[in-house]
Amino acid sequence: MNVSKVFLLVMFLFGYSNISFAQSASLEESVDINQFTTSAESEIFFFDSEGSICFIDFANFNVNINAVSIYDPAGKQLLSEEVWDLPVNSIYEVDTSNYKTGTYTLVLNTYKGNIRKDISIK
Q1: How far apart are CA 93 and CA 98, in angstroms?
Q2: What pLDDT score was predicted for residue 26?
């Protein structure tokens, strides 16, 4: 009976320790966009004709995007959405019609770091 308890304890501890060593995304680490795509930025990030919707083409990345965030010029987070469950060939739309004129920071979170892109709202 003691052998089975020890075995269960060892299995529990071994399984639990593997979870603690799992890979996690760094929220502060920025990476160069050119590491994850061979496309021009104009093919990845583009606006509609009125300039109110920003499109992000996930198909041009060779890394999965986990979340999309937008920060205003003061650094306040205006949008945060998890997108890890979207298909890798999605075109993600960000409605910027309610944002004031200025330069905003778009952040794409991946397991390899954050891709940052400044976008101008006119």
Answers
A1: 14
A2: 36
Radius of gyration of the chain (CA): 20
Using alpha carbons, select from 45, 104, 95, 41 the residue that is nearest to residue 72: 104
Domains of the chain: 26-121 (2.60.40.3080)
Report field, pTM of the whole predicted structure over 0.85: no
Using an 8 Å Cβ cutoff, are 33 and 65 in contact? no
106 close to 121: Cβ distance less than 8 angstroms: no
Please answer whether residues 31 and 62 qualify as being in contact, where contact means their C-beta atoms are separated by less than 8 angstroms: no
Query: Low-confidence residues of the chain, pLDDT below 50?
Result: 16-27
